[in-house]
Design brief:
Pfam family, one: Glyco_hydro_43
Strand order of the largest sheet: 24-38-29-34-35-36
GO molecular function: hydrolase activity, hydrolyzing O-glycosyl compounds
Helix content: under 10%
Family: Belongs to the glycosyl hydrolase 43 family.
Organism: Dyadobacter fanqingshengii
Number of strands: 38
Protein name: Glycoside hydrolase family 43 protein
Largest sheet: 6 strands, antiparallel
Shape: elongated
Strand content: over 45%
Structural class: mainly beta
Radius of gyration: 26 Å
Mean pLDDT: 91
């Protein structure tokens, strides 16, 4: 009996010791949390899919070309730019490049996208496909033309059949907004089934502004839908997210009694319109957009990540960190990295290409790199014409270019909302000018004459929160203390509804020459 007692006490001691043993710590350098945004800058309405071991995401480009940026990731946190869906815009389109939805089937990538049609300026849904994302997509034209507007496509497969869903009646004053669905052909390129209704927006409450941006997936016996309501964009936005579910795709659908299930706070404002993706370890993540609370509309709607968890009794999901988007959260695969968005290009020696965007309201600017400089042709004579811009990742940054002054040709750095709302700072011959275009009215704010000997000029813009700007000029290697070389200005009027300003360069004036931009640098604070 005594030996048994000793054995039993020893067993308890060993068991207790193992129970108290601390869990292994993560390997040195392993980051187990991530910070939102995971895709910084203006990246609204994100779609995400998992193909093999790689996630792909595409987002709205609004009035910017190339259309619909695509990113890739191995862990939903660290994303790399792949390229656009369309390097050249589809012939039938004119703008409003919204809500691209990626889908992958039988070795083919599909993109179902919203765009405004040239012939009637109405927004409808098109489809494009490719075998290789890096090669861009082949457009197949309009797939859904519905009354005055059809937007926000989302595609699912049910029992081997493809179905497309979309937001309808958003511009129809005679009836409420609905999310509709219909069967697609096996090749995914045309609608073959009669439309059916999934949900209707309520006339009051958080859905009174509509229901849109649906993401639909199957779990267990239910189809689930995340959808967004209220105003998506701009300083007065109040976007929110709700849940619905059904046992059959065609319905009837039941809305969650606790809606809205995700809404904004001081950290992330107006969250919504995203896609749910399931990781290999069966975790559910919602990649959606929201405005950063500090930069707000000046940096656009950014790509943020929120996790869903499940109540296995009620079979309803909830957001893991409550009803607001987490500023910091546990990483999907336990890995996260600090992304460096800074870059510097010296055109005399570097081959790096800047990810320029342009205003699709105008022809794509004619430019090339040669003779150690970025040369932009002065083919669009308006003050904001020939603009090449960068998507701003956050509101506080310094943007610098080095130029060689030209006669009769103004070379500018610009913060650009649209062609009728921008602010620029540039050199023409021996004059430095700060100017603005507000609601289409051009005004020169300040002009300064500089000595003729200064030809190689550095123009810089320091931004704070995307709203407060300091423009400055310098001459490399020379002191200019006797000259005032900086000016400060505030531009609260620049964001234009759904499109955040871009920062970049352009040429203007009566001359027919080309810019001579020697270097470009972007540095975030």
């Amino acid at each position: 009996m005594k030996s048994f007692t000793i054995f039993f006490l020893t067993f308890l001691f060993i068991t207790h010791a193992f129970a108290q043993k601390p869990k292994p710590k993560p390997a040195p350098g392993l980051v187990v949390t991530y910070k939102n945004p995971v895709i910084a800058g203006d990246f609204a309405d994100p779609s995400v899919i998992l193909v093999g071991d790689t996630y792909y995401a595409a987002g709205t480009s609004s009035e910017w070309g190339p259309a619909y940026p695509i990113y890739s990731s191995k862990n939903l946190v660290d994303w790399e730019y792949v390229g656009p869906v369309f390097a050249d815009l589809p012939e039938w389109t004119m703008g409003s490049f919204w809500a691209p939805e990626l889908y992958f089937r039988n070795g083919t990538f599909y993109c179902y996208y919203t765009a405004r049609r040239k012939s009637d300026k109405q927004s409808f849904i098109g489809v494009a496909s490719t075998k290789d994302l890096k090669e861009g997509f082949t457009d197949h034209g309009v797939i859904i033309e519905w009354t005055k507007e059809a937007i926000d496509a989302f595609v699912v497969e049910d029992n081997g059949k493809l179905f497309i869903t979309w937001k309808a009646y958003g511009l129809d004053k005679d009836r409420g907004i609905e999310i509709l669905g219909a069967e697609l052909a096996p090749d995914g390129l045309k609608v073959i089934g009669k439309e059916f209704s999934l949900i209707k927006a309520e006339p009051t409450g958080w859905e009174s502004g509509g229901a849109e941006g649906q993401s639909i997936f199957k779990r267990g016996n239910y189809w689930y839908m995340l959808y967004s309501g209220n105003a998506c964009c701009g300083a007065n936005c109040d976007y929110q997210v709700g849940f619905a579910r059904a046992e059959k795709l065609e319905g009837p659908w039941t809305k969650y009694a606790g809606n809205p299930s995700l809404f904004g706070d001081d950290s992330w404002k107006c969250p919504g319109h995203g896609t749910v993706v399931v990781t290999p370890d069966n975790r559910y993540f919602y990649l959606h957009h929201a405005y950063n609370g500090i930069d707000f509309t000046f940096a656009g709607r950014q790509g943020v990540l929120s996790e869903l968890v499940w109540d296995e009794v009620s079979k309803w999901p909830a957001f893991r960190y409550g009803k607001t988007t987490p500023a910091q959260a546990e990483a999907p695969i336990g890995i996260g990295a600090v992304v460096n968005h800074n870059f510097s290009i010296n055109y005399n020696k570097d081959t790096l290409k800047a990810p320029w965007v342009y205003d699709v309201s105008f022809p794509k600017p004619a430019f090339e790199v040669q003779n150690g400089a970025l040369e932009i042709e002065n083919t669009n004579r308006i003050n904001t014409g020939n603009f090449l811009g960068l998507t701003v990742k956050k509101g506080s940054y310094t943007f610098t270019v080095e130029v060689t002054a030209k006669k009769d040709l103004s070379q500018n750095i610009i913060v650009y909302g649209d062609a009728k709302n921008a602010i620029g700072y540039g050199i023409r011959d021996n004059h430095i000018s700060l100017w603005q275009v507000k609601d289409g009215v051009h005004e020169v704010i300040k002009t300064q004459e500089i000595p003729d000997k200064y030809k190689d000029i550095k123009l810089s813009l320091q931004s704070r929160y995307g709203r407060f700007y300091e423009f400055r000029w310098d001459v490399k290697g020379q002191k200019i203390d006797s000259l005032t070389s900086s000016v400060q200005i505030e531009t609260p009027w620049l964001p234009r509804w759904d499109r955040a300003p871009r920062v970049g360069v352009n040429v203007s004036g009566n001359g027919s020459g080309k810019s001579e931009i020697k270097a470009v640098q972007m540095k975030y604070d």
